[in-house]
Design brief:
Elements (H helix, E strand, L loop, with lengths): L1 E8 L7 H5 L9 E6 L3 E7 L12 E2 L5 E9 L2 H10 L9 H12 L9 E9 L4 E6 L8 E5 L2 E5 L2 H5 L10 H10 L12 E3 L4 E6 L2 E6 L13 H19 L6 E4 L4 H13 L5 E7 L10 H10 L3 E7 L4 H11 L8 H12 L4 E3 L4 H5 L3 H12 L4 H14 L9 H11 L4 H9 L4 H4 L6 H19 L11 H10 L1 H16 L3 E3 L5 H7 L4 H4 L7 H6 L6 H5 L9 H6 L3 H7 L2 H4 L7 H13 L5 H17 L6
Parallel strand pairs: 13-14, 13-16, 14-15, 16-17
Antiparallel strand pairs: 1-3, 1-9, 2-3, 4-5, 5-6, 6-7, 7-11, 8-9, 8-10, 11-12
Length: 633
């Protein structure tokens, strides 16, 4: 796992490549390296995982005509290396980095179909003066790029690009609207109008100042209804076992996150099966006023006991003030998934003991584990109720319901379901994702008319994935919802969070559920088997029932999040009121203060849960103060 940065141009480049690359030192504290010529400058920061002695970057081919910088891990590199050696390629290292470079020599852009892992890399061809960049299929590793002032930039994080003091920091209005809608900014957008994210499964080729984008992979949901449950369970378990074994490749200490849920517990069970030595496991709990929050440490402890792991836990307290700056600087743009707080601390304690940690991320997307998937399945029953009753009785009744006093989301989920239940499927699913209810959205920004088109564009972006032709099932298919999340929420929220926070601690996190062969297999499982009747993760739970304690299989899903809803109206109330005061919000004048006062009041009094909107505002406020964009537009 590493940090990469580079600049290419038709003209001679004169930039402080070492200083700019060193902004990524947290991603690679062990070593640095640079390649510099008239038209290209590549930089690399290394976190040593494989080939500790010989894996330094950048790496060149035998005749020095091509050079690569790489971030990630290729789990099948040894098999590829043997194949390439048999074809005549000569290797000077034992690294997966050099394997990619020789694979590119052998197959060109076709090398990507042979790679099994997580990656973002750039290859410079000094003869043709061309740059080739690729991002992995699922978006596990990030890649940002920018064109400005005759130069093309790429980087693992935006901070290396922004370290150029002359680079413009104009804010993107659509990205801002998406942020407050979703709590993250979906690709290809970033908060800076001049910087973009490379989409997962895509490449960029830069030659002589011209850029070509290409898609080399996409996921196709094609349910195989000719197979039964036993076939899918057997196939899934075989590929998962293979994936976990591959993800254990390491020359440094390795462990796993263990939240107490089915996904992470499954990974720990499979790790213990693959390696007889005790697994290092790490989990989080929460202090302060937790309300209805279910602490899952007990479930994690039962799995740790069953597999005799070296287990450690940590308790997070509701004191984000000192942590907020670290979170904001990790992302370089507003990012408001509040699970970033426990993620920060679990990465911190993990890094004190290991360099690599495996995670159960991806299980919810593969096997329909989110509450919104259940809501989507219930739409078919709800639609049978006359529209007049839905809109004039149920909608009014649910809007008037007070939220639960303990901060749990039960009533809030009902409200979101009813508000979206009568919309077309794509609009309905977007309604589940949209954090701003219509009455708030209409007056959220001080200049509401100016931003309405951006709210609409954000909706179009997300719904475009929902309506993709890559899903073969019907218009109201659960497959569409899961595909949509695989293209938006998974890479740009869950995986972005994991990458940025883990690398802030110089920790590599691996995600065996997101091995692309496993993902492709799961996309052939009919949705009514992944979620049978109203049982989320039905097939996964059945497949791993012999590996995990019954209480882990059957307990209510909590998710790796904290009791933020309750914290904001109790322990953190004073912090909220101060951060969102008139004086602070007036620094940018973007947000309608009357609407924000209403949002905060509704949340504190329990009329409506607005925890994600309030946290989004807090994070944005601090981001603005730290990054001070010059203009908006």
């Amino acid at each position: 796992m590493c940090g990469i940065f580079g600049v290419v141009s038709k003209n001679r480049i004169d930039i402080p490549i070492k200083e700019l690359t060193d902004t990524l030192a947290h991603r690679g504290p062990d070593n640095s390296g640079y390649y510099i010529e008239d038209n290209a400058a590549l930089g690399h920061r290394r976190l040593s995982i494989i080939d500790l002695a010989g894996g330094h970057q950048p790496v060149s081919n035998e005749d020095g005509t091509k050079c690569i910088v790489f971030n990630g891990e290729i789990y099948n590199f040894r098999e590829l290396r043997d194949r390439l050696i048999s074809s005549g390629h000569k290797f000077s290292t034992l690294s997966d980095t050099e394997t990619i470079l020789h694979a590119y020599e052998e197959w060109g852009e076709g090398c990507l179909v042979h790679l099994r892992g997580m990656f973002a890399f750039a290859i410079w061809d000094k003869i043709d003066k061309c740059l080739f960049i690729a991002r992995d299929r699922l978006g596990i590793k990030p890649l940002f790029y920018a064109e400005w002032n005759g130069k093309f930039y790429f980087s693992s994080e935006m901070k290396a690009i922004l370290a150029d003091p002359d680079f413009p920091r104009d804010m993107d209005e659509m990205a801002l609207a998406c942020y407050f809608t979703l709590s993250y900014i979906p690709a290809p957008l970033t908060i800076f109008s001049k910087i973009r994210k490379l989409l997962p499964g895509h490449t960029i080729t830069w030659c002589d100042g011209k850029i070509k984008f290409s898609k080399y992979w996409d996921l196709h949901f094609a349910p195989d209804r000719g197979k039964d449950e036993s076939y899918f369970i057997k196939g899934f378990m075989e590929i998962l076992e293979e994936s976990v074994k591959g993800h254990l490749i390491s020359e440094v200490p390795l462990g796993a996150f263990l939240s107490g849920g089915v996904d992470s517990s499954t990974i720990v069970a499979m790790m213990s099966k693959a390696d007889p030595s005790a697994v290092n496991t790490f989990t989080m709990g929460f202090g302060g006023n937790k309300g209805g929050y279910l602490d899952e440490r007990g479930f994690a402890a039962s799995v740790a006991e069953r597999y005799a792991t070296h287990h450690r836990d940590y308790e997070v307290m509701p004191s984000p003030e000192g942590l907020l700056d670290k979170i904001v600087r990790a992302f370089d743009e507003p990012f408001a998934d509040d699970s970033v707080i426990p993620s920060y601390f679990v990465c911190k304690i993990a890094r004190e003991n290991v360099t690599v940690a495996l995670s159960g991320l991806g299980g919810d997307e593969l096997f329909a584990g989110y509450e919104r998937y259940l809501g989507f399945r219930l739409r078919s029953y709800y639609s049978r109720i006359p529209l007049f009753v839905r809109e004039n009785v149920f909608l009014r009744l649910t809007d008037a319901l007070p939220e639960r006093s303990d901060g749990h989301y039960t009533v809030n989920h009902i409200k979101r379901f009813v508000r979206s239940g009568s919309l077309p499927p794509d609009h309905g699913y977007f309604g589940y994702l949209n954090l701003l209810k219509p009455s708030i959205r209409e007056s959220f920004f001080a200049d509401s008319g100016r931003f309405q088109k951006h709210f609409d564009a954000c909706s179009d972006l997300v719904r475009g994935h929902f309506n993709s032709t890559n899903v073969e099932d019907g218009d109201d298919s659960l497959d569409r919802a899961q595909y949509c999340d695989m293209k938006t929420y998974l890479p740009e929220d869950i995986l972005a969070l994991t990458d940025r926070i883990s690398m802030q601690h110089s920790l590599e996190v691996r995600v065996p559920f997101l091995d692309h062969k496993l993902v492709e297999f799961c996309a052939t499982i009919p949705s009514d088997i992944r979620m049978k009747t109203l049982k989320k993760k039905y097939l996964l739970k059945k497949a791993v029932s012999g590996l995990l304690p019954p209480e882990v299989i059957n307990h209510r899903k909590q998710g790796f999040v904290g009791p933020m809803s309750n914290w904001l109206k109790t322990d953190m109330k004073a912090f909220v009121l101060e951060t969102l005061s008139d004086g602070n919000l007036s620094r940018h004048g973007l947000i309608n203060k009357k609407t924000i006062d209403r949002v905060v009041n509704e949340h504190i009094t329990g009329k409506e849960i607005h925890d994600k909107t309030i946290w989004s505002l807090i994070v944005f406020q601090r981001w603005f103060e730290l990054y001070a964009p010059a203009t908006i537009g």
